[in-house]
Design a protein that fits this description.
two-stranded parallel sheet; DNA polymerase, domain 1; disordered N terminus; flat
Length: about 450
């Protein structure tokens, strides 16, 4: 479902205020052998507004299914999934903190009538048969935008989606990690011990597989409970439009200069130093791709930054930088030095600029007051209007409308900033119709208000 330690699974966002969301359902399932808290001891003082303890999910209700590793097993699973009923819960486990890229190393599916299916995509890398078996079936994922790209690489591309994380955001839940939502909405607690595991490990331990199976155990029940709440709050159509947008979006385009995202790069003050960052980042990426390991396991960002601030001239100087002393980094000392030397002797015309090239959007908002005070005032008013609507509708402002869309219409508003013109502009930036219906007129009023 996520890279190691991802808050979408772990629920590590700010703690929720209050115990249970309105409309939360009773637990959908209990773990085998789990005990539900009994009545309070007579005369004992109970804390006010204490929420009932969540019931732990300890094992899949149907037992742990075998891991699918052969074409024959996969074909039988496809038949079972095709004969199932209702939506299909889908999850994928990756090893982003250990391996190069973001491919899936385990795929989990669960559908009523078919049970849980665990597929090893290393042994079975073609899931186009699963895609055909589930044609037209709604796929239920949590934080779908994280898993859809790696599933598409395997040939699984659902045509209909329900994203439980996105549904939680639209409903105003302050914490939308899978574990937190399952606990808040269903009264169940999910195991989190292996969220940071290296899922490329083979063979996969049985307790890891059990953990993975539980990730889809109650996902459809969670979907049903959230769908009821969306209906009650009048937000179901919002959700449908958002889910369709996620499916249509596809993977983001590659960054023009990904090396500029090196942590700590703000400490490198010279263009020559930035050239060292670029050269070391590119060399690290080449090595990581070749070895199929996460780039940060080859060389840490901190080491790149220190080498850029004071470029070492030989191996002895290189080893004075702590990040280059580990066995993994030492074995490539020659490559690091050659990369640094290429940056040291590069012509001035070939050095990177001090800041990233400007994109097609407005400048960073913190510079507006100096560059265009009128635009800064428009942005402040537009943001205030969006925040007021978001509060009234109990939805995060960034889900009501993307901050980038508001920056763009505030920086360069239409010549006649009517509600219709703002709606057209927002539509061009990818806003959904439900968003436009809520914000176009208030934003138009904010942009034209007197200062």
């Amino acid at each position: 479902m996520m890279a190691a330690g991802d808050p979408a699974r772990d629920g590590t966002a700010a703690p929720a205020q209050g115990a249970t969301a309105p409309g939360a359902t009773a637990p959908a399932a209990t773990a085998p052998g789990a005990t539900v808290p009994g009545p309070a001891v007579p005369g004992a003082a109970a804390p006010e507004a204490a929420a009932p303890a969540a019931v732990p999910l300890l094992a899949p209700r149907d037992g742990l299914p075998p891991l699918i590793v052969t074409a024959g097993q996969l074909a039988r699973a496809e038949q079972a999934l095709a004969a199932g009923r209702g939506p299909v819960a889908v999850d994928a486990e990756r090893a982003s903190g250990f391996r190069y890229g973001h491919r899936a190393f385990l795929v989990q599916l669960r559908r009523e009538g078919a049970g849980t299916v665990l597929i090893d995509p290393v042994a079975c890398p073609d899931l186009s048969g699963v895609n055909r078996a589930l044609a037209g079936v709604e796929a239920v994922l949590h934080a779908a935008s994280q898993d859809l790209p790696c599933l598409a690489e395997l040939g699984f591309r659902p045509a209909e989606l329900f994203d439980t994380e996105l549904a939680g955001r639209l409903l105003g839940y302050p914490r939308v990690g899978l574990g937190t939502l399952v606990e808040t909405v269903l009264g169940l607690s999910l195991e989190k011990s292996y969220s940071a595991a290296d899922w490329s490990t083979r063979p996969l331990p049985e307790d890891w597989l059990q953990y993975a199976a539980l990730d889809v155990e109650v996902l459809v029940e969670l979907r049903d409970a959230l769908a009821r709440e969306l209906t009650e709050q009048g937000k179901l159509e919002w959700a449908r439009q958002e889910f369709a947008a996620v499916l249509a979006a596809g993977p983001p385009p590659p960054r023009a200069e990904p090396w500029r995202r090196t942590s700590g790069i703000h400490r490198v003050r010279s263009r020559r130093g930035l050239a060292v960052v670029r050269a070391l980042w590119q060399e690290r990426d080449r090595i990581a791709r070749q070895r199929d390991v996460s780039p940060t396991r080859v060389l840490g960002d901190a080491a790149i930054i220190e080498a850029a601030r004071t470029p070492p001239k030989d191996a002895a100087a290189l080893t004075t930088i702590s990040g280059f002393t580990g066995r993994g980094a030492r074995r490539h000392a020659g490559e690091w030095l050659r990369a640094i030397n290429r940056a040291r002797v590069a012509a001035d015309a070939d050095l990177p600029e001090s800041s990233a090239p400007a994109g097609d959007g407005p400048p960073p908002a913190h510079r507006w007051a100096e560059r265009d005070p009128a635009a800064a005032a428009r942005l402040a008013r537009a943001r205030a209007a969006v925040n007021e609507i978001a509060t009234a509708r109990n939805v995060p402002p960034e889900n009501l409308i993307t901050p980038d869309s508001i920056r763009r219409v505030a920086w360069e508003p239409p010549a006649e900033p009517t509600a219709e013109a703002i709606a057209s502009a927002l539509r061009g930036f990818g806003a959904r119709e439900w968003q436009i219906a809520l914000v176009a007129a208030p934003v138009a009023d904010a942009l034209t208000a007197e200062t």
